[in-house]
Amino acid sequence: MNAEPESGSSRRDWIKGVAAGSVAAFSESALSQRLAQAEQAPAAGRGNLIQQENAKPGSLDWQLTRVRLDKVGGFRSQWIEGYCSKQSVKAGESIDISVSTDPPRPFQIEIFRTGYYGGRGARLMTKLGPFEGKKQAAPAIGEKNLHECRWEAATSLKIPNDWPSGVYLGRLSLLADDPAAGYWQSYVTFIVRDDRPADILFQCSDNTWQAYNRWPDNYSVYTHPKGNEGPWADVSFDRPYAKYAQIYENPNSVGSGEWLCFEFPMAYWLEQQGYDVTYCSNSDMVTPDHGLKCKAFLSVGHDEYWDIRQYESVVKMRDAGVNLMFFSGNAVCWVTPLRASHDGRDKRIMFRGGPYGGDYKLAVYRHEKNGPFPHRGPDEGYLIGARNVDPVNGGGDWVCTKPDHWIFEGTGMKKGDRIPGLIGWEYHGDPPADIPGLEIVGEGTALQGGTRPQHWTATVYPGPKNNFVFNASTIFWCQDLSSPPGHMLPWSHWSRPHGPDERVQRITQNLLRRALASR
What we know:
This protein is an alpha/beta fold. It folds into two domains: 8-53 and 196-517, no CATH class; 63-193, Macroglobulin (MG2) domain (Immunoglobulin-like). The protein is built from nine helices and 23 strands. The strands form six sheets. Strands 11-9-12-14-23-22-21 form a seven-stranded mixed sheet, with helices on both faces. Strand 21 (439-448) and strand 22 form a beta hairpin. Helix 2 (28-40) crosses helix 9 (502-517). The two termini are 19 Å apart. The relative contact order is 0.14. Residues 1-10, 19-26 and 40-45 have low confidence and may be disordered.
């Protein structure tokens, strides 16, 4: 199928292809036996790699407890901060960790894998150091406000072969005999990926983490003097993640991007349930065929920034029969070209290259208001099932509109039932009318600033090979799956999710059960 079904014959061909597959995709005759088998042998399976890993003892002390920022309202912790040389790495490969301490002080690095671990949330994998810290130079401001650090590596870590895929936090801690002198902490973050045919591929939204990263002071793709929605600012992964800088204060976030805020509750719940899951970065999906071995692909949290090659890879997955689940809001919003760093490391610098949306009115408006942009992306509604809309931020309840749909099996939900505060702070709406078999399973109103309304829409549509695409239409979906250590509930526009909800858990189980039985 064409990756960009914008108009004319390409769109007609795309619709024909989906229509041809839609009967098979949702026919119960082929699927019922597999679902029955799944009841006898749960999709989580027994003894998979993730279950084996989570049977190991977790750590009682892995969070940040001693955090200091450079000023009131600041973002960085100059006393100790660092970054990794790659977004993701495979077992057997090495990753460099660069650290600056100002003033110079000795420090250590503890590497934790985040997961369930009996409710503890992380496991200590190794401890590195102590190292003699030193102050490393703040980068000169480059073209388009680029801040690209060129720090000396404190250490190089070769990933052991027995470290499973996951999101890893390196806790940087100053060492001091006198605690009154300040023994501050922050994180570095990296992903261990693999190529095994796991049931579930969890894509981390780290392009978005970096887009909003304001390190060292106020430098993100949103803070250029020309405005906050143009192509004017470049950002580099070669810099620390500052404190999370958006809708709420989370002091535990320094150095961890948005992982603990908006994605970790999903990973914690998946691993608690024993699902066979592997993890990757946004940049890993630039590689064609990366996810074709898996049965389900998850976009989680705030997944706004996609390289066009990443988009094409996910379209290819859908068309090959992989089930896609967008447990995210504001996803696939901006085309985000990735290019190499100053020393040639691939996919380390990005910028807002232009809007997705094709000829949809919001994309046209954005191009006219903030362009010209060098790139334009296809209409994301034909991938997700709904689009980014304006206003795209607000808060509200998630409302059931089709209780007889299979995703609501066992929830007891009736039409009009609400899950409080689950919509926010950004969402999807306005689904394309010509996707065959598309069903609206939830919809309602979100309010921006408590006053400006927008219609949001949750959808399901059939793929061509007995698969489906689900759109939860909210960044906050995973907030109602679990509440792990190191996490705190966000809020948005006088609305907030309430935390673990049995209905959200059951809907997610229903989606995964069908996805894992369909291939």
